[in-house]
Automatic annotation (TrEMBL):
The modification N6-(pyridoxal phosphate)lysine is found at K200. Pfam families: Cys_Met_Meta_PP. The keyword DNA-binding does not apply. Transmembrane segments: none annotated. One of its GO terms (cellular component) is cytoplasm. This is Cystathionine gamma-lyase.
Length: 380
């Protein structure tokens, strides 16, 4: 069951991705292989078997990598978290004197890492808003995009930026966390590398941390594999197995999350007490022209402003189907007031991640919770 046929649609690809050929008596997805060392051939040593030691070798991890690789359309290496994948990629590729451009409005720990660690190593770091304007890429070693960007949901034109980057000899990396490989295929759009957190919608059950890098370049796969083996940021076998099991329902989960986001965005757009609504799937959204051209489906994440921190607290407390939590892309609808984590967002800015609840229930609950939260209260 390993090689997905190109004509298969998303649901079929997800349910079969990375599974071994059927063997009578064997499970569909083999259970996790828990091993640090494996038995070695006493004469031939490690060369005689696929597995010698758990840091470089784990069959559960390899099956997950073939599954994600099939969906992204490249070779995949998984990491212990999205941050492990992003920082590993940047450290493996960049050298002192290089210039890197990173999103100014993306996941903020990436900026913090760049300032604290990359600059300290002598890498020149620039931050560019996802919507641009982008500077000349002459002399830039690596450009990283995050599209849609978290949490503001702006979108960058990957194909256009890939052309410009490649003309200057710049590597293009796309963080595909929010879209997932079903929402967008950056390698098809010209990116050299995809990097992502698999903690979010990809696995979607809020029960594990995972990251990955995917590419079509054999040289980059080799560099990243060597980096990961040396530094050791591998996910455990149980997390890899859970992630693979969860991938089978990715198409179903995203379909409901996206439908819920569309309905919630419509509700919020009609309310005078909500401002700054962003969802790239709305034709009125500034991101819509590029998003609708390059994305295969829209994410379940919506952002908006409730005007004040205490109004966000009242809204979440009143809701029965929206819980306060960071992260996004899970089965349950969550709201996160991003300013509390240090994001450069307004105090009442909310990132709402729609879960897979029934759409009518979720919309009714959010409408009632906004009513219960009342208006912004003047400071006394
Ligand atoms: C866009 C994006 N990239 C990367 C990460 C980091 O992923 P992880 O939390 O799995 O390390 C996050 C986490 O929220 C994210 O939103």
């Amino acid at each position: 069951m390993s090689a997905a046929e190109p004509q298969w649609r998303d649901g079929t690809r997800c349910v079969r991705a990375g599974l071994p050929e059927p063997v009578p008596g064997d499970p569909f997805l083999p259970g996790p292989v828990f091993a640090a060392p494996y038995h070695l051939d006493p004469w031939a040593g490690p060369a005689a078997a696929a597995n010698g030691y758990g840091r470089p070798d784990n069959p559960t991890r390899r099956l997950l990598e073939s599954a994600i690789g099939e969906l992204e359309g490249g070779d995949c290496r998984v990491f212990a978290s999205g941050q492990a994948a992003i920082t590993g990629l940047l450290l493996a590729v960049l050298r002192p004197g290089d210039t890197v451009l990173l999103p100014a409005d993306g996941y903020f720990p990436v900026r913090a890492f760049a300032t604290a660690t990359l600059e300290g190593m002598g890498v020149r770091v620039g931050f560019v808003p996802t919507v641009g304007p982008y500077p000349s890429f002459e002399g830039v070693r690596l450009l990283m995009l995050e599209t849609p960007a978290n949490p503001g949901l702006d979108v960058a034109d990957v194909a256009a930026l890939a052309r410009e980057a490649h003309a200057a000899g710049t590597l293009l990396v796309v963080d595909n966390t929010t879209a997932t490989p079903l929402g967008q295929r950056p390698l098809d759009l010209g990116a050299d590398l995809v990097v992502a957190s698999g903690t979010k919608a990809l696995t979607g059950h809020s029960d594990l941390l995972l990251g990955y890098v995917a590419t079509r370049s054999a040289e980059l796969v080799e560099t990243l594999t060597a980096w990961r083996t040396t530094t050791g940021a591998v996910p455990g076998a149980f997390d890899a197995w859970l992630a693979h099991r969860s991938l089978g329902t990715l198409d179903l989960r995203l379909a409901r999350q996206s439908a819920n986001a569309a309905a919630v965005a419509e509700l919020l757009a009609g309310r005078a007490d909500v401002t700054g609504l962003r969802w790239p799937g709305r034709p009125e959204d500034p991101a819509y022209p590029v998003a609708s051209a390059q994305m295969r489906r829209m994410p379940g994440v919506v952002s908006f402003d409730l005007g004040a921190a205490d109004r966000v607290s009242r809204f979440v407390e009143a809701a029965r189907l929206v819980v306060a939590a960071t992260s996004f892309g899970g089965l349950h609808t969550t709201a996160d007031r991003r300013a509390q984590w240090g994001d450069d967002t307004a105090p009442g800015f909310v990132r709402l991640s729609c879960g897979v609840e029934d759409t009518a229930d979720l919309v009714a609950d959010i409408a009632a919770a906004l009513d219960a939260a009342g208006p912004v209260r003047p400071l006394s």
